[in-house]
C-alpha cells in the first residue's frame, strides 16, 4: 500500500496541472474568494451552517457507529465476521447508489433538496428499524441475520448516497466560495461529531442502546433541518443562463 501511494504521489509531483486547458463551465472560470473571505462567508452564512449540520451530524454518527458495529451486534449474538460483512456491503451499496443518485440529479436539476428529503427519510426509517430490532425484550421484532443485514445496508445506502447530493448543495449555496474550502469544512465538522460520539463511548461502553438511538435521532434532526432549508442555485444559474 505504501508503494502504491508513493508511486501516485511521485506522479503528482512530476506532473499534475493546476487546472485543465479549458474551463469546463462558466462558473469554474469565474473569480473565487480568498481563503480569509471564504471562511468569513461560511461562518456568517446561516443557510450554510444549517445544511452543514444536517450533513455532519448523521454522517459523523454513522461513521462512529459503523466503526464499532461488531461491539454493538455482539449482545444480539452476531459474530465479528458477520458484522464486518454488514459494514462492507453497506459502504459498497452506498458508493454504487451514490454514483447513480448523483448522475440522476444531473438530469433533474434544481431538485437537490427533494432528493435529500427522500434519502434522509429512508435513513430515519432504516435506523429506527435496526434500533427497534435490537430491543428484543421490548419490541419482539424478528431478529435474524437477514433483518440486520437489510436494515444496516439500507441505512448505509441512504446515508452514503446522500454525500454527493449534500456536496453539490453546499457549493451551490455558498458560491463563489471555492469548492475545496467548503467541502473541507463540512468534512472536518463531520469528523468532530464522530470524535465526540466515540469520546462518550469510552465512558458508556457497557450498554449500546443509547448509541443505536443516536442514529435515528441524528437522521431525524437532519431531515428537519433540510425541510426548513431554503435552497438556491447561484452556480447552476450562472452555468445555464450565462453560457446560453
From TrEMBL:
Keywords: Membrane, Transmembrane, Transmembrane helix. Coiled coil: none annotated. The chain crosses the membrane at residues 46-65, 85-102, 114-140, 146-171, 183-204, 210-229. It is found in: Membrane. It is a multi-pass membrane protein. InterPro entries: FLVCR1-2_SLC49-like, MFS_trans_sf. The keyword Transferase does not apply. GO terms for cellular component: membrane. Its main location: membrane. The keyword Zinc does not apply. This is Disrupted in renal carcinoma protein 2.
